[in-house]
Specification:
Structural class: mainly alpha
Mean pLDDT: 84
Distance between the termini: 54 Å
Helix content: over 70%
Strand content: under 5%
Number of helices: 3
Shape: rod-shaped
Number of domains: 1
């Protein structure tokens, strides 16, 4: 019996080449399928990214136009106010009237500038949020897809 055990240890296992071919074929097919799946996910991610970039560019454009219009409006208001003030100064008859007009003008200009700054700041904040939102959503979607995969 000792010799039989010794023979078993050194006995050549039966080697079936057809099973090796089947294993290689299965391995290759699984690899190709995984590659197709990965490519499909990458293609979807690239398309989503392109859409996100397009939306972001459109948002930035619209927001910058809005900010530009607000800035032009502020400049127009300031210019009109300055011209009105200059007209009023032309009719001044005394130094005290001049000081009174100048003080009132400066006060209204400071108040108007503060209000315009608030308006521009709020518009800029909203623009920044709307620009960041699509990218944030796309990143969250991508990370969720990675977790699933």
């Amino acid at each position: 019996m000792a010799t039989k055990k010794k023979d078993d240890v050194f006995a050549m296992t039966s080697f079936d080449p057809s099973k090796l071919s089947d294993s290689i074929r299965d391995f290759t097919e699984k690899g190709a399928e995984q590659t197709r799946d990965t490519f499909a996910r990458l293609k979807t991610a690239a398309e989503d990214t392109a859409k996100t970039v397009e939306v972001t560019v459109e948002t930035v454009h619209a927001g910058s136009v809005e900010l530009g219009l607000k800035a032009i409006g502020a400049l127009r208001a300031h210019t009109e106010s300055s011209l009105s003030h200059m007209e009023a100064l032309l009719g001044v008859k005394s130094v005290s009237e001049f000081v009174e007009l100048q003080t009132a003008f400066l006060r209204t200009q400071v108040e108007a500038t503060a209000e315009q700054a608030k308006t521009l700041q709020e518009a800029t904040r909203k623009l920044a949020e709307s620009v960041v939102k699509p990218g944030k959503e796309a990143a969250e979607k991508a990370f969720a897809a990675l977790k699933v995969a």
